[in-house]
Amino acid sequence: MIPRPEDVDLEVLSRRYGRPREYFVRLQQSPDTFEYFAEQVRSKRKRGEVTLVIWLGGKLLLHTKDFYPVGTYRLLSGGIEWAESADAAAVRETGEETGLRGSVRRFLGLVRYELVRRDTGVVLPYPSYLLEMEIGDGEPAPPGDEERITAFRSIAPEALAEIADSLRALTGKWADWGEFRAVTHSLLHELLSTGRNYA
Q1: How far apart are CA 120 and CA 132, in angstroms?
Q2: How far is Cα 141 from Cα 195, in angstroms, rounded to an integer?
Q3: Is the residue at 199 inside a domain?
Q4: Prediction pTM value
């Protein structure tokens, strides 16, 4: 049996950065939202994503983009290219989205999503790697037009639950996206609420 890429990643990254928590999350998705992720995998552009845990002065870095609903902020994330390792993707995405140099400090969580197309029941596995980054000196700056990031903000860890709730409260075409994005915020809040100091 050929191992799935995320199983290989799990073993390699665990040896480098520590064994993470694993989560299994099944989400119903609209056809449009499902196809957004499915097309990335079918075209071999992306095979999953990294979610970046970046601390600045004891607070967590969030961002927003010019096409998000007004007031919507979330943790930074980015796709893993087909032949790229998850930790290499995290380093690359940190630079592309913040302008800062970064390296992986800890492997906090692996979210094994099963995205289900609501009208057909087709299932798409889509992993997200929750990686804490070590950042060099400097302040994050919105990059060029390609990323479409317009602003950053920093929050106390306990505010993650509020961010997750705001994502789940999105409606219309953003509802399923918001539910998907809320998951990593809730899980990180759970991890940080256990009493272990990750900052």
Answers
A1: 36
A2: 31
A3: no
A4: 0.93
Mean residue pLDDT of the chain comes to 93
What is the separation, in whole angstroms, between the first and last Cα of the chain? 39
Domain interval for residue 91: 5-191
User: Has residue 197 been placed in a domain?
Assistant: no
What is the domain count for the chain? 1
CB 105 within 8 A of CB 135: no
User: What CATH number did the domain enclosing 77 receive?
Assistant: 3.90.79.10
CA distance 137 to 192: 24
Residue 5 confidence class, pLDDT cut points 50, 70, 90: confident
Residue 196 covered by a domain: no
Average pLDDT of the residues in 171-177: 96
17 within a domain of the structure (yes/no)? yes
Per-residue b or e along 30-62, where b marks 16 or more CB atoms closer than 10 Å to that residue's CB:
eeebbeebbebbeeeebbbbbbbbbbeeeebbb
C-alpha–C-alpha distance, residues 55 and 199, integer Å: 7
